[in-house]
Amino acid sequence: MADAFPGLRERLAAMGAAGRMRRTAGDGDRGPAFEVRRTTRPAHEVFGPEGAHPDDEGALFLDIETTGLAGGAGTTPFLIGLARLDRETVTVEQYFLRRLGGEPAMLEALRGRLLAAETLVTFNGRRFDWPILEARYVIARVPLRPPPDHADLIGPARRLWHRPLGTHRLTAIERAALGIARVDDVDSSLIPALYLAYLRTGDAAGLDAVFAHNAQDVLCLIHLRRRVRRWVEAGEDPPPPVDWEGLGVLRQRAGAGEAALAALRRALAVEDDPAVRWRVAQRIARLLRRDARWDELLELWVREAPGRGVWRARALIEAARVWRRRLRQPERAAAALEEARALTEWLLATGAPGAEALEREVRAHLARDRSPVPRAPAGASTPPRR
Amino acid sequence: MTLEQILDRLRTDPTLARHLTAWHEIPARKGSYAPLPADLHPRLTAALRGRGIERLYSHQAQTWEAVRAGRHVVVVTPTASGKTLCYNLPVLDTLLAEPSARALYLFPTKALSMDQADELLGLVRAMDAPILAYTYDGDTPGEARRAIRAAGHVVVTNPDMLHAAILPHHTKWLRLFEHLRYIVIDELHTYRGLFGSHMANVMRRLRRLCRFYGSAPQIVCASATIGNPKELAERLLEAPVTLVDENGAPSGPRVFAFYNPPVVNRELGIRRDALSEAGRLAAEFIRHRIPLIAFARSRRAAELLTTGFRRAAEAAHLPPGRVAGYRAGYLPSERRAIEDGLRGGEILAVAATNALELGIDIGRLRAALLVGYPGTIASTWQQAGRAGRTQDLAAAILIATSDPLDQYIVRHPEYFFGRPPEAGLVNPDNLYVLTSHVRCAAFELPIDGDERFGPNTLPEILAYLQDQGIVHHEADRWHYVADAYPAQEVSLRSASTENVVIIDTTDPAPRVVGEVDLASAPGLVHDDAIYLHLGQQYHVDRLAWDERKAYVHRVAVDYYTTAQIAVDIRVLAEFARGGGTPPPAHGEVVVTYRPTIYKKLTLARHENVGWGPIHLPESTLHTTAYWLVVPDLAVPREELQGALVALSHALAHVASLFLMCDPRDLGRAYEVHSPHTGRPTVYLYDTCPGGVGFAERLYRLHADVLAAARDLVAACPCAAGCPSCVGPVLEVGATGKARALQVLDARLVPGAVG
User: Fold this and answer.
1) To the nearest 5 percent, what fractions of chain B are helix, strand and coil?
2) Chain A residue with minimal CA distance to B476?
3) With an 8 Å Cβ cutoff, is A9 touching chain B?
4) Which residue, among B121, B51, B45, B50, has the nearest Cα to B89 in the 3D structure?
5) What does DSSP say about strands B180-185 and B218-223: parallel, antiparallel, or unpaired?
6) Cα(A36)–Cα(A39) distance, rounded to whole angstroms?
7) Any idea what DSSP says for residue A304?
8) CA distance B145 to B137
9) Higher pLDDT, B747 or A19
10) Helices (H), B503-563
11) pLDDT above 70 coverage of chain B, percent
């Protein structure tokens, strides 16, 4: 523990009573304790001819800069960036804590904006920004209620870009997917230290980059939200790199089934990793089964999905299931299973990984298929249970 | 045979009886009762009656009265005297009347938390009341945590969780803090030394947050018997506390005997192994179906005892499931099954570590075997108390090992039986501990310029933290500004959170075999050391100091290693000097450790068969010490040195007895010519940075410590030194023991030597 406080005793001894008296640079009343910087620009300047999305007009885009990333009661947001839209303009407001003592007043001023928002849009705000704000309001003893709707874009971002980019950090996405390159951006890990330096010296020059960074972040949220909407809800295809499987999942959740299928098929077409291919094929199969599209389902297992080795054998098993249960052609099902069995035998002989589990599976299917074909009307939307 | 007959034989059989050094009979005592309080909530009264409780023990009633009067209370009564009801009564009564009220229960261990939450819930169910009690610890899943924060009336947790998870996230616990009516601290006696010093600061933080949220909880503490419960509680809570210490629970007659195994090697002072002696005695109890608990000092010893129990059970034609082991490291479900088995009587005998010493309910057994002195009088009574029913005879037998403490205790039973249990010492104002918690407190809420947090050094500490970039001073408030979560870096249980991990690389897949704390690492796991773990020898191939890892492989060799660590001690400030000539003193010191060489000694004859250098950085410790100036003996330097080693060995062991601490919590050093005192000097220092108050206490107990050390050395049958008194002859030389005794004898008559 002694190491945690280097020279504690010596330093305390040296400070003595002088320590009590010392006044530091942040002291005294020098101007207001917090300030709001507001800029309003025409929407087309920010978004080009696209304009703003009409549904985003009641939304509040929010991003905060804090004294630390640890969370908990000791993390103070010193810069709170907000963006709002109307048909013609984009307004960015930045609430900046000039002195730490100004926090209650700043929170009071901010409160109306938070309460008026129909939807809060953030990036990782469910875990970071909102809980921190909630904690600050509790400490300031000012009541606050959560917005009716909170869209945290980190979820879609992870689905769309984590695999191709190896990260889902906002700046990386911005560059790769939105085609925006930041100039002279500040590394966010340095931000707490820059603010501390400002508190100590009173010199805000070092913070210009932080203001710019924060403004860029909230504007980026607007961009990201509209693009994600276009790609997910409107079915437009995003430019690469993108995780097509992730897009398929998001579209499926948004109720865009056809577009989801298209994205998942595209994922299957470009994906090399057999395990991922298999997962994607299962997702496609679920969608097809839901709509009783048996021919396409068969096509999936016979032509689109199969890879090699174990995966091919598994696809054959799936194909057999379609033949037997959906298309009522037990002979063809048996043929597919037989092919799967032969392949499995060869895989076992060559010691392919996963072959043993596969063999058990094939055997179970073969045993089941000796039982009579279940008597349910062909094309039933819910498959009969075994 | 009945227990009476077994005890009778033990006392009369000459081969056994001559090893009994004490036979202490405690008569039965009647219970003292009080009616259920008239103002108790009717539903609670009904629930108690439903469980067959028609009246209270007097201490339960007294606690009720004191809590009713708005006081903080500490209840001190022995094991299984209905302590839990003392605090559950007022808490449940309040919760029945005010559903918005909240209570926080703190137990030192997770296992206890579970046990107590169950007991509380049992009462709640009996009342059919909408009261929710939850345990909140590291195992609580995320979903449940949210529910507990929002709706738990009683939150049962441990100080570590409170410190690292609840206080730093207090805003999420708004309801708890706003409506907190009671804080219950059970097993108060465990909060002593460094752990207690941390606990006192956690309480400062907790009560600070309560003030912020506008609550002023009452605190009810329960403790096993210790010497200073009121003082300890007041130190921990920094508020006046009412003491309830008249036990109203009845108990049957009891016998407490001390057994010292026979000496087998007089030269080395080695006695017959306490574990095998315990095994023989236990077999006797098991054979006659006497419910039994045996306490061992280590997990390994508990395991060995368990094996012995199995054999005894087999010989007595009992199914193996009727005996069990119990120690840390067992799964919670396994422990539960054993506790239930003991309560229900399905398990006849259990071999445990002190994991079973605390208040887990295992019913009452008839015999307790203590294998080795548990280290403190308080612990010893606590363990012995596990045997003792309300009416029947019960017995406790302490079996001594060759350790100096054990030997002192069994040869001086009057010390044990005549003395109140040790006092629990804490030093909440230890600068390092305090600074850690000031940092945590600032994280939780800004600190106001006129705020108090412990001693009046707060402004200096905050100014220091400002220099470190941790807080920022503005308009007479200190705001936390560092990008770190301070509670994570502060462990309540040890001075240093750092350990060296020992990795066995014998097999292709490396395996972690254990850890040693950083301070002990240079002496135990330096390059080429032989490290012993669970009876296996390991050769240390490399100690990667910066990585905090020691790479070892299994070996079987006929030697062991012992490191020479040069300890330099420098006095920075003398706080007090005693009267008499020459005087004892205490003060602030810097201790420097410099590992130099290691020696290889044969296992058989402890002969030196080689040595090597140790290349490790030196380390320093800033702490407090007690020192003793030794009169100049007119002897050659080597003899003087031997005498000082001998003195420090004996003093350190006796001192740990008075301090209620682990012998390892106390370091010892000597100087043949101290630059500070100008004389030969022996130092005992606190091994926790900053000290937890041992030095000052020793200074005050100076005369007692010297007298006890003298008795220990004088009564030891060894010729010229053994591990049980002044240390082995190899270390103290031929005259070490005699010279040490000469000094100790002389010092009892102040001024007789000069």
Assistant:
1) 40, 25, 35
2) A27
3) yes
4) B45
5) parallel
6) 10
7) I
8) 9
9) B747
10) 521-524
11) 94
Query: Nearest-CA neighbor of B689 among B517, B431, B426?
Result: B431
Q: Which CATH number applies to A31-232? A: 3.30.420.10
Q: Using CB atoms, which residue from A15, A72, A192 is nearest to B169?
A: A72
A184-193 long-range contacts, CB within 8 A, separation 24+: A184/A209, A184/A212, A185/A209, A185/A212, A185/A213, A185/A216, A186/A210, A186/A212, A186/A213, A188/A213, A191/A65, A191/A66, A192/A66, A192/A67, A192/A68, A192/A69, A192/B481, A192/B482, A192/B483, A193/B483
How many inter-chain contacts (A to B, CB under 8 Å) are there?
Answer: 130
**Token output for A48:** 């080009």
What pTM value is reported for the model? 0.83
* A13 close to B (CB below 8 A): no
Bridge partner list, B628:
B584, B682
Q: How far apart are the CA of A130 and the nearest CA of chain B, in angstroms?
A: 13
Whether B152 and chain A come into contact, CB under 8 Å, resolves to no
The Cα of B452 is separated from the nearest Cα of chain A by a number of Å equal to: 14
Q: Which B-chain residues 153-182 have CB contacts (< 8 A) with chain A?
A: 168-172, 174
Q: What are the two backbone dihedrals, phi and then psi, of residue B148, each rounded to the nearest 5 degrees?
A: -65, -45
What is the gyration radius of the CA atoms in chain B, in angstroms?
27
| Min Cα separation B440/chain A (Å) | 9
**pLDDT for residue B315 is more than 70:** yes
The beta strand positions in chain A, using DSSP E, are: 34-42, 59-66, 77-85, 89-97, 119-122, 149-152
Residues 209-238 in A contacting B (C-alpha not used; CB under 8 Å): none
Query: B90: distance to nearest CA of chain A, Å?
Result: 30
Structure-token pair, residue A241: 């790199």
B485 touches chain A (CB under 8 A): yes
Contact (Cβ atoms closer than 8 angstroms) between residue B56 and residue B111: no
A101 at interface of B, judged by CB pairs closer than 8 A = yes
Tens of pLDDT along B147-204? 899 889 999 999 999 999 999 999 999 999 999 999 999 999 889 888 999 999 999 9
Task: Give residue-wise pLDDT tens across range B486-521.
Answer: 998 888 876 555 678 889 999 888 888 777 777 778
**B39 and A CB contact within 8 Å:** no
Report whether B613 contacts B597 (CB < 8 A): yes
Nearest to B689 among A2, A16, A73 (CB): A2
By CA distance, what is A98's nearest residue in B?
Answer: B474
Partner residue opposite B460 with nearest CB, options A15, A24, A192: A15
Residue B533 has pLDDT above 70, yes or no: no
Helices (H) and strands (E) in chain A — how many of each?
A: 15, 6
pLDDT at B359 (0 to 100): 66
